[in-house]
Every structure is written in structure tokens, then in C-alpha cells.
Design a protein that fits this description.
- The structure is a single chain.
- This protein is 57% helix and 9% strand.
- The protein is α/β, with parallel strands linked by helices and 346 residues long.
- The protein has a 5-stranded parallel β-sheet.
- Helix 7 crosses helix 9.
- It is elongated and about 70 Å long.
- The mean pLDDT is 88.
């Protein structure tokens, strides 16, 4: 994405962009970047930016719109949201005519139009079908973020800020791992931390204050209680976290965090992994950058959990996740959480 933005900002603008994938926030950033580069003022941008929804147009209608000269501007920007839902004309003959018209345009796009097709996640088979099959050279993928800690660190660095290791861990533990959620929280954190004189860094206290995490009842304390095999304390901390975040959403975040926690412990149950250098252990655990700081914590936690313990815990977490997704019935979220704690420490 960074390379794509740099190209746009340098003026190397393509006539067509096919943005594919679930990270809608990042795709919106690309569209906004194009708007700023293409038009000298907001009034020009508003007048010459056209947003169309796939379900409201056909391939032929879209190309007709893209082929119209803009008014009072050398360029126009056409953004097609949900382009995977572009309508098919009624008859096979019309479908063929529309497809041919679309193909001709892709091969020779209008110089005065920048056409952006934004598509939701599509499997490989769908991408081989029309119209996406014609857009391979213009395709840019935006898959789900795999390493939210790296993403958050890089976003902060782009703004000239840095996370303390425990601050980054707190943010990733409590915020949904999507670009939209992370970027919005980072923006709030920077505004909050800017009121403090000194280094441009985000501390754990900043995260606690902005995200609304209790300093006494958070996932760090939950980790310690689990390692101490203290069921009563684990249950109490978990209930407080869930109440802070709001029932189902809070429980979902706890399950997500603990799944990562136990998978890492399971990997460390192998003696050959524990004997590796900390940097290599961090890579195996999926801990990058400043997160390597917490390798020593996980090595200490392995004394409290056998490989069988971690496998049983992962199975219990998957069962709880299935219940949250509606696949298994349960009385309420607090019951589900307390039952999970029993299984984790049973």
C-alpha cells in the first residue's frame, strides 16, 4: 500500500484501480489520496468525484459514464463501491455487448477519467470471472491484517510517533485487528499524548486512558493469574474486563487474546524452540519489533503449562468462539466466560 500511495502522490496515476479485499479503510485512503492529487480544491473534488454502487449499474452504463468528459476540470474520479455486485443486462446478447464495451475501455481507457473499482473479498474463482478477469494489471489487494502490531507500529511511525512495548501490547489486546479500528485509535492516542511534553511516544498509560482499560483489570493481570493457576482471580479479572468493554464484544476480545496466548505457549512447549535465541523465538511466536521484549514473559509462563494444558485450552477457546458465533447455544456471556475459565484451569 505504501508504494501505491507514493506513486499516486508523485503523480504516477493509473487510469484504472481495482482495489480488492476486506480492508475497506485502506481502500478508502487510496481513493481519498487520488482525490487530493487530482483536484486543486475541495470544490473541484466534490464536483468531479462520482460515487456509483455496483448494484445500481451495468458494465456498459459504467463505461458510458467513464467516457463522458468532465465539466470545468481536466479530470474526473469515478469510484465504484461494491463493484462485485455490478448488474448483468437481461439477455445473453446484451451481456456480451456490455462485456465487449468494458474490455475495449480497459484496453484503451479515457485519459480524463480515473476509474476506481472497489470490491469486497472475492475468492480466486470469482477473480477469474468478468469483469475482474479484465482488470488483473490494475489490481491491488487489501487482505486482512496479519500482524496488527507491525501495522500499528508503522502507522505511528508515519506520524512521527513510537509505541512503548507494553503500550503496543495493550492496544493489540483490546482493539479489533482491522485497519479502521487501529488507525482510529492511534489517531486518538496521538492527540491525547500530544498534550504531554517530551518524547513523541505512546505509553501504556496513554492506552489505558484512551481505550478505557482498567490498570488493575487488564489482560496483563489475566496472564499472571492464569500462570498462577488462580481460578478465582482469573474469573474476577475476566468479568471486570468484559464489563469494561461491554458484554459480547469484551468476551470476544478476551477469547481472541487468550487464543494467541495459548498458541504461543503451545509452540514454546517444544524444547528445541525454547533453546533458540530470543529473536528467533519471537519470529516463531509471531512477535515482531518491540514485541520481542515479551519473549521472556512467555518463557517464564511455560513453567505453569504443559503441552497438554495448552492443547486443552485452545480446544476450549475454539468451543467458546463457536458459541459466540451462534453455532452452539449458551445462557449468557458471563456464564460462557466463567465456564471457559473453569476449562482453562481444570
Amino acid at each position: 500500500m505504501d508504494k501505491l500511495k507514493k506513486n499516486i502522490l508523485s503523480g504516477a496515476i493509473a487510469p484504472i484501480y481495482f482495489l480488492s479485499g476486506p480492508e475497506s479503510y485502506l481502500k478508502e485512503e487510496i481513493a481519498e489520496c487520488l482525490r487530493k492529487v487530482l483536484f486543486p480544491s475541495e470544490s473541484d473534488a466534490s464536483f468531479n468525484t462520482h460515487i456509483i454502487y455496483g448494484s445500481e449499474t451495468t458494465p456498459g452504463e459504467l463505461i458510458s459514464k467513464a467516457s463522458e468528459y468532465p465539466m470545468f476540470s481536466p479530470k474526473q474520479l469515478i469510484i465504484v463501491r461494491q463493484s462485485e455486485k455490478i448488474k448483468k443486462p437481461g439477455s445473453k446478447q446484451l451481456q456480451q455487448e456490455h462485456e465487449e464495451k468494458f474490455m475495449r475501455y480497459v484496453q484503451n481507457p479515457a485519459e480524463f477519467t480515473v476509474l476506481v473499482l472497489d470490491a469486497e473479498p472475492a475468492d480466486k474463482k470469482e477473480l477469474e470471472k468478468f469483469p475482474f478477469s479484465a482488470l488483473k494489471q490494475y489490481r491491488h489487494d487489501f487482505p486482512l491484517i496479519q500482524n496488527p502490531d507491525i501495522f500499528a507500529s508503522e502507522r505511528a511511525e508515519m506520524a512521527g510517533w513510537a509505541f512503548d512495548p507494553d503500550a503496543l501490547k495493550a492496544l493489540i489486546a483490546y482493539i479489533q485487528p482491522s485497519s479502521r479500528e487501529l488507525c482510529q485509535e492511534i489517531e486518538k492516542l496521538i492527540i491525547y499524548a500530544s498534550a504531554r511534553d517530551g518524547e513523541r511516544r505512546i505509553t501504556a498509560n496513554d492506552v489505558y486512558d484512551c481505550v478505557g482499560i482498567s490498570r488493575n483489570y487488564n489482560v496483563f493481570e489475566l496472564e499472571k493469574a492464569l500462570a498462577a493457576r488462580n481460578l478465582r482471580l482469573c474469573s474476577g479479572i475476566s468479568l471486570m474486563i468484559m464489563d469494561q468493554e461491554g458484554q459480547k464484544e469484551g468476551l470476544g476480545n478476551i477469547v481472541r487474546f487468550l487464543t494467541t496466548f495459548y498458541i504461543r505457549l503451545w509452540k514454546l512447549s517444544l524444547p528445541e524452540v525454547r533453546q533458540l535465541p530470543p529473536s528467533e523465538i519471537a519470529r516463531i511466536l509471531g512477535m515482531y519489533g518491540k514485541q520481542e521484549y515479551f519473549v521472556k514473559n512467555y518463557l517464564a509462563y511455560t513453567k505453569s503449562f504443559s503441552q497438554r494444558d495448552t492443547e486443552q485450552a485452545i480446544a476450549a477457546l475454539r468451543e467458546t468462539d463457536a458459541s459466540l458465533k451462534g453455532l452452539k447455544p449458551y445462557p449468557d456471556e458471563k456464564y460462557l466466560l466463567l465456564r471457559l475459565m473453569q476449562k482453562l484451569l481444570g
